[in-house]
Design brief:
Blueprint lengths: L1 H7 L7 H20 L7 H23 L6 H6 L6 H27 L11 H25 L3 H15 L13 H8 L1 H13 L7 H24 L1 H9 L2
Helix pairs in contact: 2-3, 3-5, 3-6, 3-7, 3-9, 6-9, 6-10, 8-9, 10-11
């Protein structure tokens, strides 16, 4: 119902879910490739390969972060697990971004990049990104219950991440140890780079790094669920009295 209600507010309905990221990428392409002459071969696809995972992450975490406090009316009447609200927001974003992922595949076809066995390695990347989104969505939603100022920090963090995740530049072109540090401390940069490696370079990303990230964010999700359970009533009180 949330998806239908959102789409029904616009004349183009569901098509906006495709037009919005496409227009953003075209805008970046015009600025960096045409005006600044900083692009490279297949630069539109280069941008799109990184923009798709970043937009999914950014929109999902932002939506999940405000999901609990937005349901003040329901929380004041029902005693339900508060983690339900971030998960619901994340699922809505997942459905919307799955359409954009199909658009990415079509653009790959237009540039002459067709499916190979390596494309199956996108599945672990997508699952990892979902884990990252869940972990940070739960964390930010919890923090906003106690300090709504966190919303501003999230917006600033997303803007900073957009410029530090290799969307506009090739991470492989960075010198060491900057490249290694960026991939280690910024999992979104790892995802963006890995999407390009699979779709454009027909190569393989670092499996060990993938496993480490899975471990870190899986543990974080477990810890957050424990915290949510312990703070269930306290979170409700904070939201109702906010």
């Amino acid at each position: 119902m949330t998806l239908k209600a959102e789409a029904s507010r616009f004349y183009l309905s569901f098509l906006w879910w495709i037009f919005e990221p496409l227009m953003v990428v075209l805008g970046f392409y015009f600025v960096f490739n045409i005006l600044l002459q900083r692009g490279q071969e297949n630069y539109l696809l280069f941008l799109f390969c990184a923009k798709v995972p970043f937009v999914w992450f950014s929109k999902s975490v932002t939506a999940a972060s405000g999901s609990i406090i937005a349901q003040k009316g329901i929380i004041s009447q029902l005693n339900i697990p508060k983690a339900i609200f971030p998960y619901a927001a994340i699922q809505v974003s997942l459905y919307k971004e799955s359409i954009v992922l199909v658009l990415l595949v079509l653009i790959c076809f237009l540039y002459g990049f067709f499916p190979t066995f390596n494309w199956f390695w996108l599945i672990p990347l997508i699952i990892l990104e979902y884990f990252i989104i869940v972990a940070l969505g739960l964390l930010t939603a919890l923090l906003i219950c106690y300090a709504e100022d966190v919303r501003m920090l999230i917006n600033m963090a997303m803007l900073l991440l957009m410029f530090m995740s290799g969307i506009f530049f090739d991470i492989a072109s960075l010198s060491e140890p900057i490249r290694s540090y960026l991939l280690i401390f910024n999992p979104i940069a790892f995802l963006c780079d890995s999407f390009r490696i699979i779709l454009m370079q027909k190569g393989m990303y670092d499996i060990n790094h993938l496993i480490i990230l899975f471990g870190i964010f899986s543990l974080l999700i477990v810890v957050l669920h424990v915290i949510y359970r312990k703070l269930n009533f306290h979170m409700a009180a904070r939201v109702i009295n906010s």
